[in-house]
Write a structure and sequence with these properties.
single chain, 163 residues, alpha+beta, six-stranded antiparallel sheet, two-stranded antiparallel sheet, 10 strands, 22% helix, 36% strand
Length: 163
């Protein structure tokens, strides 16, 4: 049977479409991987990829004693007095991470139990511990007109738990 150019075009187009789809998927995978890691290194040399730090999260009954390494947690225990929930992370990089969420703690009870306070969390000061890099400090700022709270965790930078 003689094949003409018109009968070969659909097969060729399908092959090209499949190839294009495969290349697109590979490029997307490479892009996502690159976005997950910060391309600046701790020593400032360009071209080296450094994975973004973890935060030691003590949130949840199963992790209350030892914590577990996590990136971009939705809920995070900051200290024995303060936590932040429903965090929407805006940045998670090699040097710092920041996001917004609902802040609570023993210092705002009972008011914040029914109406959580809005705030911005910044994690900073990465340190390598047991072969992994963890943020070791946090700064917390309440948004809007939160009222007056006498809490050390709301004043300046504080140490964050590390392994």
């Amino acid at each position: 049977m003689n094949r003409t150019a018109s009968t070969q075009t659909p097969k060729l187009s399908r092959k090209k479409a499949a190839l294009a789809a495969g290349i697109s998927a590979a490029l997307l995978g490479a892009f996502v991987t690159t976005q997950a890691a910060d391309t600046s290194s701790a020593d400032g040399k360009p071209g080296r990829t450094v994975a973004a730090p973890y935060v030691l999260n003590l949130y949840g009954e199963e992790y209350a004693d030892t914590g577990h390494p996590e990136r971009r947690p939705a809920n995070l225990v900051l200290s024995e007095f303060t936590h932040i929930n429903n965090v929407k992370w805006k940045q998670w990089g090699a040097k710092k991470a920041y996001g917004t969420g609902e802040v609570g703690g023993t210092w705002c009870l009972p008011a914040c139990l029914d109406k959580p306070l809005k705030g911005t969390i910044t994690l900073s000061d990465p340190k390598t511990v047991k072969g992994r890099t963890f943020y070791s400090a946090f700064t917390l700022k309440l948004s809007g007109k939160p009222g007056t709270y006498d809490s050390e965790d709301l004043q300046g930078k504080h140490a964050l738990a590390t392994p």
